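#struct-help
A.M.: can someone run this one for me? Single chain, 536 residues.
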Amino acid sequence: MTGPTLEDERTGQDAAAQRRSRRAAAFAEAASAGWKVWLVKIVLLGVIDALAIYAILVLITQGQWLPPIVVAVVTALVNVVYLKPGLLPAKYLTPGLIFLFVFQIFVVLYSIYIAFTNYGSGHISTKDDAVNALLLQSQTRVEDSATYPVKILEKGGEFYLLTAEPGSGDIVVGGADQPLEAVPGANAQGAPGFTTLDFGQIIQNQDAIGALSVPLTSDPNDGFLKTTDGSNAYVFTSTLKWDPKADTMTDTKTGVVYTDTGRGAFTASDGTQLLPGWQVFVGFDNFVKAFTDQSIRGPFFYVLVWTFVFALLSVATTFVLGLFLAIVFNDPRMKSRRFYRVIMILPYAFPGFLSALVWAGMFNQDFGFINQVVFGGAAIPWLQDPWLAKVAILIVNLWLGFPYMFLVCTGAIQSIPDDIQEAGRVDGAGVWQIFRHIKFPLLLVSVAPLLISSFAFNFNNFNLIYMLTNGGPRFADASINVGQTDILISMVYKVAFVGANRDYGLASAFSIIIFILVALISFISFRQTKVLEELN
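D.P.: on it. Structure tokens below:
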């Protein structure tokens, strides 16, 4: 045997060189890809940090301190997670956790906080804002007040008055949140940093300028300067006098003294309140009101019972109809089954709120399709009578819900092995016995969790109630805006967002009650589902 030839050695050297070249190219490509990843990472983190710094500055200028700290801490953690090597699970989990906190946990915590306050109409802002609003809304012009020639200035979308003080002639500028004070470089025609409005601009903004009240001093009791024509202003004072030391508001016309009782409004001895008030912590008052105030308790318990009845009947009716259709169209003897199945799921393809609006028109008492065609022109008050309105809701929800149950039951039935059913037939069981003792128990194991979720969905089926009946007909003796077909979630929406008196605190308390009820029902139901699984 001979050793390797010179040609073999050269071939081996070339192969080794090629391998080294490929490894070098691979290392270079990996390094290039790594730098690209780092570059993208730095750019994205830079954008996030810039947005975070902007948010922190905005929050600080608004007098907030806790939110900026939270934003700073979260931003620092994000930078650590994505800049530090390793921590691969955290890199994947961080975005999801942030969105979970912002859109779920924060919303829940904020709702809980609001439930323990009097936040609502007349109690929106702080006490200082309430004092200023009370003094502004009770203003009257001072008799024989001096005339102040004014110029209208604008800065940052806000309007200001420029005038000369009657005694000294000094040029001063003031706005809604800024008492009259001297501005360096100001003269009778304008001030540096401000835009002087001409006549046309004053006419365009006359409503906002007419509503402008400029405090004469930092003490609002000294009065305000107001103009109606944009050229002359007059002194107005409030019929209410604010005493910060005694923490009282006195009506100078009647002599009635309103004190701060800790309930978020200045209150007289006879219980009369001055509104607007301010937001305060009230503890469990909203929950107590929901269960003890007769004008709220009666409608609340009525709505609570109807919510359970509606959810249970909705699940039961849609499940029964969906199961029946699934059995019928799963029979191999049924011809054109695919065609019928497509027709059955058509209601499921249309948006629920749109279908509810169409059905509302069909149930119209005077010219609806159901009264005019089905009942030959009868004037049946489907949506005006409390009981008929409930029937209409259940009919519409059956139309909207049975396709879902049809699909679920079809899948569950088709998943049952044929040999089990065949074994029942061999043992002499009939069709009904096979369904009752074999098919239905096995189907319940698969469908029970979906029935629970369907119950929870119908428990909060806001779209159907609001679009079809708007919760009506309304209770005449209720102090809150609630009707006889409202469910809990639609009642919460009305209490919070409909009408002149909006009580966000009470609505949040109702929301917590709904959450507790749904959680308890789901917990009990899932335990029963586990029992079904163990039995089968």
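A.M.: thanks! The radius of gyration is 36 Å.
D.P.: also worth noting: Residues 6-61 form the longest helix (56 residues).
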